[in-house]
Amino acid sequence: MASTTVDAVIPAPREVVYRLFADRESLNAHLLPVQIKLTKPGLTEREGVGAQHLVGIGPVGVTEEITELVPGERMEYKVVKGAPVKRHVGIVTFADADNGTLVSYTMESDPKLPVPSKVVEFGLKNLIDVLIKGAQKAVR
Predict the structure, then answer these.
(1) What CA–CA distance (Å, rounded) separates 133 from 126?
(2) Please, is 97 exposed, middle or buried when counting C-beta atoms within 10 Å of its C-beta (0-12, 13-18, 19+)?
(3) Burial 130-140 (b: 16+ CB within 10 A, else e)
(4) How far apart are CA 122 and CA 124, in angstroms?
(5) What is the mean pLDDT of each run of 10 residues along the chain (140 residues)?
(6) Continuous segment of H or E residues that includes residue 109
(7) Which of 14, 99, 103, 123 fits a 20 to 30 Å CA distance from 116?
(8) What is the DSSP code (8-state) at residue 22?
(9) Predicted model pTM
């Protein structure tokens, strides 16, 4: 299994930054190379636990499902469809920082295909970087 964590400070209050990540579609307006579309609402709220999002271009992409939300502190999701993985999990935590909010974004992935961990980790880091840059653009 490959795992990568990226830490970044986003210059905005924690609740603002948390909402950007928890409300997955909110990042669409910030020049991401992919679009995020809610395909199934959460169990108790639209963007809550159980919500599923298609992340991709048009109808092609992966489906993520929110598995945990702790407002202002943590969100987790897993890929449930569309990727050649046995398991893929994203964990995002939020903490106060001097100049905003410290985001710690971890992706863990266990591909079905025999791909070297270093290659997978490189890809995961690039995915995380794109999402963090989208959040940084959103708060400008």
Answers:
(1) 11
(2) middle
(3) ebbbbbbebee
(4) 6
(5) 96 95 80 86 92 90 95 96 93 96 97 92 93 89
(6) strand 100-111
(7) 103
(8) H
(9) 0.92
